[in-house]
């Protein structure tokens, strides 16, 4: 295995091509699916509409979660809504997805997740057996993640005005002293790590939704990551930035950190761990694996002097067994992510305008 100071080899990826919802005109006065895709349209909606309306320094940080101080305690606070279709897919369902997604957002600040709220929006006519399956999945996922579902809410909408079950979870956790993990802290020289193979969640959901078969079943990677982050912090509390690459995939997560820190990122395309089934599905469908969503992976910007030890700790953890070095942070081309291709060239890895796979979380 290559160490964290070299560029490791990996199975070559198929030529990526774009398959996305057509990019709407920016001045369009209506919401489009691309606004929920985690890419350029999502960023414009947030920075152009929501943050000016709310206007506060906590929100302006735009991390995976808000970092707050109450008295002498540093808290992480996050909320997310889940509208995945279908509700059940290989490897998980909307219930464990909701728990893991919020737990992971908290963990990306280094926090130890503690409590969740859970709100259901149910469509009239939905079978109570379906609701029970989702609720039981939420309970099991919360126990596995070591968090308590402490409060919640339920609303019902008219038949035809929902999609069975929507779930919103919010969570709070405690950030340990001496930990300062923010996208703004990435700096040139940092080594970029991912915790395992990418693209599994998005392809798993798509395969069920569209009735596609790829020779082998692709299961979602949905999983809680807080204990993996704890193992990384045990090596050094000086992790600079963490992000779970959900909507918009690894490419969007890297772009967000590059933009927040004002640094450039160089990605080694062949070093990105892409499972054969995901590569095959993406090649068949014209998707770029870098933009496909994950729900149990993280990307880390780690000081070079700690990178080998952090990588070893990740690989020793069940959720980081497939961890790999995929790039580095540089002073050149600030705010831009560039990939080195297997042909020896480079390409800009930009934020997506539209959305490759809507309704995957």
**Largest β sheet strand count, sense and barrel closure:** 7 strands, mixed
Model regions low in confidence, pLDDT < 50 over at least 5 residues? 1-25
Shape: globular
SSE order: HHEEEEHEHEEEHHEHEHEHEEE
CATH class of the largest domain: Alpha Beta
CATH superfamily of the largest domain: PurM-like C-terminal domain
Family: Belongs to the HypE family.
Pfam families: AIRS (PF00586), AIRS_C (PF02769)
Protein name: Hydrogenase expression/formation protein HypE
InterPro entries: HypE, PurM-like_C_dom, PurM-like_C_sf, PurM-like_N, PurM-like_N_sf
Describe the structure.
The protein is of the alpha+beta class. The chain has two domains: 64-174, PurM-like, N-terminal domain (60s Ribosomal Protein L30, Chain: A, 2-Layer Sandwich), CATH 3.30.1330.10; 183-348, Alpha-Beta Complex (Phosphoribosyl-aminoimidazole Synthetase, Chain A, domain 2), CATH 3.90.650. It has nine helices and 14 strands. The strands form three sheets. A seven-stranded mixed sheet has the order 9-11-8-12-10-13-14. The protein has a five-stranded mixed sheet with strand order 1-2-7-5-6, with helices on one face. The protein is globular, with a radius of gyration of 19 Å. Residues 1-25 have low confidence and may be disordered.
């Amino acid at each position: 295995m290559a160490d964290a100071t070299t560029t490791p080899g990996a199975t070559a990826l198929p030529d990526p091509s774009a398959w996305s919802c057509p990019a709407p005109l920016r001045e369009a006065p209506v919401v489009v699916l691309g606004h929920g895709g985690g890419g350029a349209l999502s960023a414009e909606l947030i920075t152009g509409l929501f943050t000016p309306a709310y206007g506060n320094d906590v929100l302006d940080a735009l991390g995976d979660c808000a970092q707050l101080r109450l008295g002498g305690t540093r808290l992480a606070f996050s909320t997310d809504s889940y509208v995945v279709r279908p509700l059940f897919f290989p490897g998980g369902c909307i219930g464990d997805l909701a728990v893991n997604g919020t737990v992971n957002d908290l963990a990306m600040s280094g926090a130890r997740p503690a409590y969740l709220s859970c709100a259901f929006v149910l469509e009239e006519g939905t079978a109570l057996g379906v609701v029970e399956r989702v609720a039981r999945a939420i309970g099991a996922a919360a126990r596995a993640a070591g968090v308590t579902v402490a409060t919640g809410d339920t609303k019902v909408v008219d038949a035809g005005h929902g999609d069975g079950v929507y779930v919103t979870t919010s969570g709070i956790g405690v950030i340990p002293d001496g930990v300062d993990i923010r996208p703004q802290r990435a700096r040139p020289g940092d080594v970029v790590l991912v915790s395992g193979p990418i693209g599994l969640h998005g392809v798993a959901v798509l395969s069920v939704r569209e009735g596609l078969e790829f020779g082998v079943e692709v299961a979602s990677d949905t999983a809680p990551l807080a204990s993996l982050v704890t193992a990384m912090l045990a090596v050094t509390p000086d992790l600079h930035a963490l992000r779970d690459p959900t909507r918009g995939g690894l490419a969007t997560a890297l772009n967000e950190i590059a933009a927040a820190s004002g640094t450039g990122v160089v990605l080694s395309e062949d070093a990105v761990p892409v499972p054969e089934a995901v590569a095959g599905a993406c090649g068949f469908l014209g998707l770029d694996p870098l933009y496909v969503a994950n729900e149990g992976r993280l990307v880390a910007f780690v000081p070079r002097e700690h990178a080998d030890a952090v990588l070893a700790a990740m690989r020793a953890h069940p959720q980081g067994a497939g961890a790999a070095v995929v790039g580095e942070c540089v002073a050149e081309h600030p705010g831009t992510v560039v990939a080195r291709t297997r042909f020896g060239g480079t390409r800009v890895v930009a934020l997506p305008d539209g959305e490759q796979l809507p309704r995957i979380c």
